[in-house]
Fold this sequence. Notes:
Structural class of chain B: mainly alpha
Low-confidence stretches of chain A: 1-9
Mean pLDDT of chain A: 93
Order of helices and strands of chain B: HHHHHHHH
Helix content of chain A: 55-70%
Strand content of chain B: under 5%
Number of domains of chain B: 1
Number of strands of chain B: 0
Oligomer: heterodimer
Strand content of chain A: under 5%
CATH superfamily of chain A: Cytochrome c oxidase-like, subunit I domain
Structural class of chain A: mainly alpha
Radius of gyration of chain A: 23 Å
Amino acid sequence: MSSQAAPAYITLPNYIEARPGILSWLTTTDHKRIGILYLAGMMPLFLVAASIAVMFRLELFAPGEQYISNDQYNRLLTVHGVVMIFLFIIPGIPAVFGNFFLPILIGAEDVAFPKINLTSWYCYVIGAVLALVSVVVGPADTGWTFYVPYAVKTHQNVLLPMTAAFILGWSSILTGLNFVTTVHRLRMKEMGWFDMPLFVWALYATGWVQIVATPVVGITLVMVLLERFIGIPIFDPARGGDPILYQHLFWIYSHPAVYIMVLPAMGVVSEIIPTFSRKTIFGYRYIAYSSIAIAAIGSLVWGHHMFTSGMADVARIVFSFLTFFVAVPSAVKVFNWLATMYRGSVYLGPPMVWALMFILLFSIGGLTGLINASLSLDVHLHDTSWVVAHFHFTMFGGTGVIFFAALHYWWPKMFGRMYNFKVAYLAAGLFFVGFCTTYLPLFFAGGAGMPRRYADYLPEYEIYPKLSTIGSWFLFSSLLLMLANLVHALFKGERAPVSPWGGATLEWRTASPPPTLNFDGEPDLSRGTYEYPTKVDDE
Amino acid sequence: MSNGSVARTMNSHSQHAEHHDPAAGKIGMWLFLFTEVLLFGTLFIVFAVYLQKYRFDFREASSHLDKLIGAANTLILLTSSLTMALSIGALERARKSLAQGMLVITIVCALAFLVIKSFEWSAKFSHDIYPKSEAMLLKPVGEQVFYGLYFTMTGLHALHVIIGAAAILIAMVFVQKERTRADRITFLHNTGLYWHLVDLVWIFLFPLFYLIG
C-alpha cells in the first residue's frame, strides 16, 4: 500500500469547502454536491410521509372512527403513497448515492452531463413543491396509482399530484440517461466492464429501466389529465374508453419502477457485504448479469398487479410464470451474498448490520411475493393487508433499509465524520423490532381477509392492526434516533479516516470528504475492485 | 505524479474544465430519442387497442379528415428532413452559409406545417368538432375516441414541431457564432436527430389517421 501515501489526500480542499455560500450549492454541477442536495430535500419529505403513516395508523388502533374521517384517511393514504414512492424510494439511492459515488467508483471527475444533472435536481424540487402544495390545497384521494375512472371524476384536486409525478418522471429519466452515458463514456481506460463495482452495474441496469419505462407512465398521466380537464375520452368507460388499458399502461411503468427502487439497493449490498467480510465478492459476473436479468424480466411482469382486474387467462398464466421467473436472479444475488460471507472475516459494523437485516426482510418480502404471484392464492389475497405487508417488506425492508445502510456506509466518506456506533446499533435494533411488529401482523390479517385501504375494520381483526400501530411507534422512534445520530455526527463526530471499513473500491482511496474533482492525481487502480488487503489501513 | 495528475490538480481550481465528448452527446441524444419513441409508442398502442375495438367508427371518422391537407403536411415535413440533413452535410464541409440557408428552409417548412395544421384544427372547431362539443357528444363513442386521440396525438406532435423549430433556431445562432462548426458539430447533429424523429412520428400519424378511412 505504498501507493496510498497519506499526504497525497490532503493537498486539495474538499468539495464542501471548495466554494462557500448557498448560491454555490444551488448552481453547482458537482455530482457530489447534487447528491447532497437530493439528500437534503429527501430526508424531510421522508419524515413527513412517515409521520403521516403514524397518524393514520393511530386511527387504525381500534375499530370505529376515532380521530380521522374516511375522507381524511383516503387523502392521508394518498399523500403517504405519493411522497414515499415518487419523492423518496424511486429517486432515493440513485439520486443520492448514485450521484455521489458513481463517478468516483469509475474514476471519473463527474457525470457525463453535469448541467443536466442539476436540471434533474430542479425537476425533483418542482415536483416536491407541487406535491406539498397539493397537500395544503387539499390532497387527492385516489391513492398513488391514480386509477381511472375515479381519477377523472373525483372532486379532490388530482392536477397537482399528477403533474408532480409527471415532472418527477423527467427528473428520473434525466438521471438514468446521465448514468448510462457516464458508465459508457467516463470509465477509466483501465477499467473494463467486469472491473466495475457491482453498485455501478446496478445503477447502469436501473438507468435503462428509468429510460425505458418512465415515458410510458408520463404520457399516460397526461392522457388522464386531458380526459379530466378537456374531456377527451380515452379511459372513461361511459364514453367508450377502457379503464383496464389505463391499468396496463400504469403498471408497465410502475412495476419496473419497483426494480428502479430495489436494483440500486442490491448494488449497495454487493458493496457492503464483501467489504465487511474482507473477502472478494462471490460470483461477480452472476451478480452483474442478474442485475441486467432483473431489469429485463422485471419489465414483463406488470400484469400480476391485475390478476383480478379482468384479463385473459392465458395472459394471467404468462404473467404469473414470468413473476416466478424474476425471483430467480434475485435469489442468485442472495445466495452469492451468503457465499461471500461464508468463511469470510465478518465484521458486524453498523452498515453490515443493516445489510444483513435487508437480506432477512427482503427474503420474506420476496418469498411472500411468490405467494402473490400464484393465481389462485392472489384471488384471495388481492387488496388485503397481506399485500401491504408484502410491499412494505420489499420496499421499506428492502430499499428503505439499504438506504439507511448506505447512509451508515458512506456517511464518513460524504461528510468526513464518524457517527456513534452504539447509538447506530441501538437504532438498528429498535428498527428491526418496530418493523416486524408493524408489518408481520398485517400478513396474518390479510390472510384472514382484512381488506386494505379502509379507515376502519371489523372488530374480529382488532389484534392485528393494533399490534401494527404499536409497532409503528417503535419504528418511527428508531428512524428519529438513527437520523439524530447521523446529524449529530456532522457537528460532533470524530474525523473519519480515508477508509474506515477497509473497502477496496475507489471511493476509499481518496480523501474523506473527497476533493472537487474526486481524486488528487490519478485514481489508484493498483488493486482490484474487490481485492482486499490483508490488513485494514486506517489512514 | 504522472502528467495526467498534474493536469487534474491544475484543473481543480476552476470548478469544471470544459469537457467536450461528442460520443457522449450522441449517446445521450439517442437515449433521449428512445424516451420520445416510447412516449409516442404508448399513444400508438392506445390507438391500436381502440382501432381494434371500434373498427367501423374509426373508419367513418377518418374519412372526414382531409387527406389532401395531411398529404401536403407529409410532403412538407419530408422536405424539411432533407434540408436538415443537407445542412449538416454542408456544415461538415465547413460551408457555413449553405448550412444556414438549409436551416432557414427547414424552419420555414416547420412554420408552414404548423400554419396548415392550425387551419385544419380550426376547420374542425368551426364544424363543432372538439372535445365535449354538442356535435361530438352525439357521435358514436368510437368516433369520439378517434377524435380524442386525433387531437391528443397531432397536438403532441405539433408541440414537438414547435420545440424542434426552436432547437433549429438555437442551432442557427450557434452556427452563426461558430460555437457549432465543422469540428464541433454535435449540437447540429442532435438537432437533426430530433427533427428526423418529429418527421418519423408524423409518417406514422398520417396513414393511421388520414388513410384508414
